[in-house]
Amino acid sequence: MFVDPAIFLAAMGITLLEISEASAVGLAISSEGGNKVFLYVALGVLIVFVIAFAVGQQMARLPIVYIRIVAGVLLLYFGLRLTRSARRAVLRSRSSVPYKDEGIEKGVFYTAFSVGLVEAFEAAIVLIALIPNNFYSTLYGMTLGLLVVVLGTVILKSQVRKIKQAKMKVVVAALLLSFSVFWFAEAVITVSDLWLVPLFIIFGLAVYFFAHRK
To answer: Is the pTM of the predicted complex or chain greater than 0.85?
Structure first.
């Protein structure tokens, strides 16, 4: 069983790149849905990867554009809800009254699952191209990439918990809105992942000023 270093590194790299984005969203929204959020992200990722290795190139024919649009709508909806929730959390923090937002948890799980699906699907397109060249190198690279992401998520999770709820809601809302616009754009044109940075800054400032307005 020969392991091709190039295939191995390519599989690990694309897995790290795409699944780390899903992990980032999971970390952000875990403040709303708790640890179950990661189960939904993982479920979305595993469904795609299992199918990818089971049916291979047939999966590449699925219309990613529709998956992105549906996921974008979900993220837009819950991003806007969290923006309003951030405003309420800021008002509550000013009055020193304990606050817990109700009714948003179920939607957070749908969001986590859809993010896992989209990011895994994008990684799977590359993995499917690598599988015919060396199945085991692709499998091992993907597995190591997943393990690294899981380890990084566990390490960062304790730090995320230290952030105040009002601030966390601002970050989460900005992140969801950024991915929403990004995926809407990707549905029609080719967009670099680097655009997520300015989008996050813009939405971060917008949500912050909305939440903290007098």
So the answer is: no
